[in-house]
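Usage

Read records sequentially. Each one opens with the input sequence:
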Amino acid sequence: MTNKPSKSVWDEGEFSITNAIEKDMISSDNDFTDNHVYVNCQLIEPDNSVAKYIRAALADNTRKGYQSDLAHFMSWGGSIPSSPDQVSQYLAAHADILSPATLSRRVVSISRAHTASGIISPTKSDLVKTTLRGIKRTVGIKQRQVEPVLKNNLLEMVNGLHGLKGIRDKAILLIGFAGGFRRSELVGLQISDVEFVEQGLVIHLRKSKTDQEGEGRKIAIPFARGSVCAVLALKNWLEVASIDSGPLFRPISRHGFIELKPLSAQAVAIIVKERAGEVGLNACNFSGHSLRAGLVTSAAQAGVSAWKIKQQTGHKSDAMLNRYIRDANIFVDNAAGAVL
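and closes with the structure output:
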């Protein structure tokens, strides 16, 4: 018999392991002793002084993602503790519905639900690993890649923006592109993070998706050589909005009132889509990530080295960066072009 899972350190929000037990979604008396090692497992409940730091190790979005994934597993009929057979059946049941990338994330979440409660995870078994590998080979693992906002697209998108909202949106688009920011990074910026210097602008990014420890880094955005300048656009927004402290980018009510809270990450995606549609692009192919992808692609097309691009974007690995660079250079020294 297994012990009833204790409250885990990511057990917060609308769905939690503890709440699931109370609703009989998680069985507290599953017995896998015939095939598994869930016998008299010692569950861990850290001291409050420790727990708060463990919670801080996970980004809020990551924790919410775990909760959402686990809720889906439970609603299907899964349980914690689970068995390799049950997890494999869950994967097979959704192989034609969910993408391999989503299923891989669900496996990670199920694993964390076990390890956070001191239970050996069934996802480490060969059965689960082989099932997931088979799904990837059968269905394929091509991931949706949004269209990048290239420099020429960007210039069209910011052209003609006026009024309070237009001035804000222009600054968001230009700063988001020039800094190669993720949308969460963009909306998380504070006035105190911005330093105007002789060469342009330095933004102190305190934390990011790949820097959860908060080491931070500096991002330089120089004055543009052309008439469209991210530095001047931001200056204009701050002056017009009379913002001297707090969040850099904020919601604007329909009555023109600038709110004190930061803009949401979803709002950035909406702005990108709206402007893409306005200039004749297919808005469905663009997202908030298109600004970051656009800088990488445009820089690669301009011959900027990969390490300089990484310095601006903060990419930790070359894998994703190389995908954009490869696409940007697909016609450079093209083999067919040399003979046709």
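Summary fields computed downstream for this record:
- The mean pLDDT is 81.
- The radius of gyration is 24 Å.
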